Hints:
CATH class of the domain at 231-303 and 332-434: Alpha Beta
Strand content: 5-15%
Helix content: 25-40%
Structural class: alpha/beta
CATH topology of the domain at 231-303 and 332-434: Nucleotidyltransferase, domain 5
Mean pLDDT: 78
Number of helices: 22
Radius of gyration: 39 Å
Low-confidence stretches: 413-433, 493-510, 512-522, 573-681
Amino acid sequence: MGKKADKRYGVVLDAGSSGTRVYIYKWLDNSIARLDASSLHALPELETKDKWTKKVHPGVSTFGATPESVGPEHLKPLLEHALDHIPKDAVPDTPIFLLATAGMRLLPDQQQKTLLRSICSYIRSEAHFSLPDCDAHIQVIPGETEGLYGWIAANYLLGGFNSPTEHAHGKGHHTYGFLDMGGASAQIAFAPNATEAEKHANDLTLLRLRTIDGLPQEYKVFVTTWLGFGANEARRRYVADLEESYNLDSTLEIPDPCIPKGIKISPNGEILSPTTSSHHLLGTGNWDECIRRTFPLLEKDIPCPDEPCLIHGIHVPAIDFEVNHFIGISEYWHTTHEIFEMAHKDKAYDFATYQTRVKQFCEQDWSAIERGIADKTWGKKVDEQTAMEVCFKASWLINMLHDGIGIPRVGVDASSSSSHNGTKEVLQAGKDKGFLDPFQAVNKIKSTEVSWTMGKMVLYASADIPPAHEDDLPVGFGSNTDGIPADFQYPSGGRLQTGTPLRPQSITDQIHDKLFHSDAPHRLPGFIFFLLILIIAAFYLCGRDRRARIYNSFSSPSNSKSRSPVFSLLKSFLRSPRYAADHYNDRSDLEDGTAATTRLYDPADFELGNMSGDSSEDDLSAARPSSQPGSSKKNLERIRPDLMDRRGLVVRTESRERLGLDTSSPNGRSKSRGGSPTRFR
Length: 681
């Protein structure tokens, strides 16, 4: 066995609705990390780099109808990218995960299952990463799980876990809230204050991590998701409502206040020629109207069965913004920064400055925006499609943040002064306080991209650490109850899945895992075949004499209902060989000496025994149950050559006359014949 590597690697494929991105993470093996006394009470230190990531388009969900193509046409470049950056000798010990989000959640169940199986098969055939369990490593994760992973990643990078005293927000609070918005869904995750946590304990998720010294860290987090409230799905719902408010049969052109003036687009968002004559949306660039039109998409009028609710009638505990400070990623970052901050030095978000810049941009003529794109006013990445979509996304984001979630409008009081730079104030405050404003959009923290995939890998690396005590509970998350709840989720099907210290897996455990935890579809028939081999081997190893007793314990008829086959088998093993042969002869064979029976025996079952004369009555009575009064005892005949069948087995045909029973004998049994090859006692 080779030397254990000092570094561990992990790969996560984020399979989103618009594309799949591969992330690679690296951390010290715990045996090495423990040598640094200064970091013992900290989580494993993960490292990643921009060049370790790669994204391909479109999303895996587009292969729902052609699952056989997802590997060569989608996953291949991502796997090759990962293999290029991970040492070859570390690949077999590197876990790989493909976790699909909102795009896959919209597919029918059968398409999901078929596609996931195809993905797992392709990864196993093309790369030799550690993938012990397809169900654990290749899956569609719920929005709540995605939000929890994001919460872990944000707090891990900000230092809320490792340095709680440096991030004290008051009321014993030292963690940050997390907001994420993709194309199809949006998530929120935060730890409520003590009062709300007690009031809504059943709504919280219990998360358990483990530091390098093996000690647990527990957090109670509220997580929920809003499927259909991502930027793209919200736009789809918005266009449907817009079209419904007009008579499409008589209206060729529908005014849209959420796209710049003069642009024409199709209902599905494709930019059209100015001279188009097909059904289209015409941009009016009316920002105030856009804000009013997008507000109903929050569906705040839906009944709330479990108060309080924020959006779509979904329960969320009351948020205490004095201690809950939120970090927003994905669309929260892109929509607030790619256009509206790119041309400015100050990057921090505040409501007043942001809304002013959005209004100025979105009320321009489309021709002016096209010139700005050509001049790269908003950077190289901003193209026509991005510029066309950003006005709706900005209005949706503002409504979600402030009217949906309830984030305070920082800087709103300064909005009346056009010369006031509220963003600059927030930026400086952020430097002084460390993300203590109610909301801050981020892309990177400490030069590391904030992605929920990091949260997944932090959890995995944490679970890889042996616990400090044997009775410590495992790393993972589940319902907020004592012990290990039924819905508890381990980080993977990986190396450490229990709360006991890490130790080598025994051969028994390995066999158990192969038989019961493998994803092989034929493990049950294999298990039965394996047991059959063991039984046959044990049968031939137990000796000829014992084999004979085993055979007859199953083959001889029984006259007692109370005697089970298991009992007979056990009894035959415990009996002395001297009396074992009596098990061949059940008194029902010749109860009165007149019945004739035919039985087959293997000649090997008969061995030469004591050739003495008569048996004592005590010997026989000890070996056989007592007979009914007046009944005759069994007698043993000489095994003659003419009683052998073609298979070499003895054919026993018995009758009163053939056995030559001596009815005149006082004890009712015949004497043993002198020429008999053996005499059973």
